[in-house]
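Q: What does the assembled structure look like for these inputs?
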Amino acid sequence: MPELPEVETIKRDLHEKICRDQFAFIKVFDSRVLANCTEKKLSKELAGEKIETVDRRGKAVIFRLSHQKFLVVHLKMTGQLIVGDGKEEKGKQTRIIFQLASGRNLFYNDQRLFGRLWVVKDLKEVNFLRAIGPEPLNGVVNPLWLTKQLKLRETPIKVLLLNQEFLAGIGNIYASEILFKAKINPKKRANRLRALEVESLYRSIVSVLKEAIDYRGTSMRNYRDSAGQKGRFIDRIRVYNREGEKCFICQTPITRIVQGARSTFFCRRCQK
DNA sequence: AGGTCGACCTGGCAGC
DNA sequence: TGCTGCCAGGTCGACC
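A:
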């Protein structure tokens, strides 16, 4: 579910709300979400830990704690991190409740149980963080870097955008949206993009992700922010999940294809 | 090296 | 109403 803009929204809100608060008591309702520890170990490791910062890397939320320790949360498709004032009831999908010293609760909800949490001393202990590519919005990624990287890849550009070892944080919604904005056919091989297309792709990656952050993400189905609110970028979506509906530019019906077992949406006329 | 597919799960929705 | 099948924002590992 949550891609870079959704996770960034959650990260900013959590940093604002619970930074400097402290974990008090942790209750686990489904231990399948614990990637590298038991309920007992999680409670023991976190109890008394102060939250120094809340960060993001790709689609993961990273709580930096006192005593050189990190809580890493990957929300996968349906995970949510929601802050309550301490009076809210546990929901059907609540898998963990973190009670904070301030009396508030941090809920980890996850319908499909794909999400995972790690407690580590070193972020390199988390496999996907070791292999993850650069952040698209932090200045490392630029047209020159993109040009060099694309030259090395024969894979269809849509599939490459989903590869987290290439770039961190882009998922299925934004991959389609970025390529629509850049007017690039999702089936086009990465190394076949012309200089102008690479330039356009770079600008689209940055502008689509930034705009989606401004709108606090996209709520297709399950996504909610840390207050349980939906993201508003759904109103700015141009192609995702719009099969058969008219392209906003040329009125051609939007096409759905399958690439790497995932749906891709695009306009046959605008994206040559 | 790159691709494709199934597995991991629950639940919403369309169609019959 | 209720059943079946399909689909879902992510990733991993097996296999070709």
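Helices of chain A lie at 4-18, 39-46, 127-131, 143-151, 157-162, 172-182, 195-214.
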